[in-house]
Design goal:
Layout lengths: L8 H7 E4 L4 E4 L15 E3 L7 E6 L2 E4 H10 L6 E4 L12 E4 L1 H6 L14 E4 L2 E8 L2 E8 L2 H16 L5
């Protein structure tokens, strides 16, 4: 059994100050030598440069800052994922955060860096363009189109119908 106490909302409020307008979670008091009160908590995790996020080491565990912000503001450590409405995982402003399932969060991801068409869900297939979307955990074929733009428009239409406000 671990001797580390679980993080409580009261402890979180003792440790941090959160600014909902800037998204900054700062130390209320100095947590250790070299980190002063008022410093922004955590650091950027750049293990995936296309999707960096801020993480904070606390109570022997790494937390994504967005999860701590949610806990700070609501008093509840989220069981679901935290989605960033604008797609920027470093923007922890309160208005940018929302609860999401894993599927909803993935629907809101940015275009992959290895995408060659410039459109999410669109792939070149010989002289035409194939549209597909991930629905219920599986890729669904949406059709073949003469242009990448037509394929992208159809893909956006379908993903908005399925994923609503989470579709990018």
């Amino acid at each position: 059994m671990s001797s580390i106490n679980p993080l409580t909302h009261e402890r979180l409020l003792e440790l941090f100050i959160y600014d909902p307008e800037t998204g900054a979670l700062t130390w209320r008091t100095s947590p250790r030598y070299g980190i002063n009160a008022g410093y922004r908590a955590g650091n950027e995790n750049l293990s995936r440069p296309e999707q960096p996020y801020r993480q904070i080491y606390l109570n022997g565990k790494n937390y994504r800052s967005a999860r701590l912000v949610w806990f700070y503001m609501t008093g509840v450590l989220p069981k679901k994922e935290i989605d960033h409405r604008n797609g920027n995982p470093l923007d922890d402003t309160w208005s940018n955060l929302r609860l999401a399932t894993s599927t909803q969060n993935k629907a809101n991801q940015k275009l992959r860096c290895d995408n060659k068409t410039g459109y999410k869900g669109v792939h070149r297939h010989h002289n035409r363009f194939l549209a597909r979307a991930r629905i219920d955990g599986k890729y669904k074929y949406l059709g073949m189109f003469d242009t990448a733009e037509e394929a992208a428009a159809h893909c956006r239409k379908v993903t908005r119908e399925v994923h609503g406000e989470y579709a990018r």
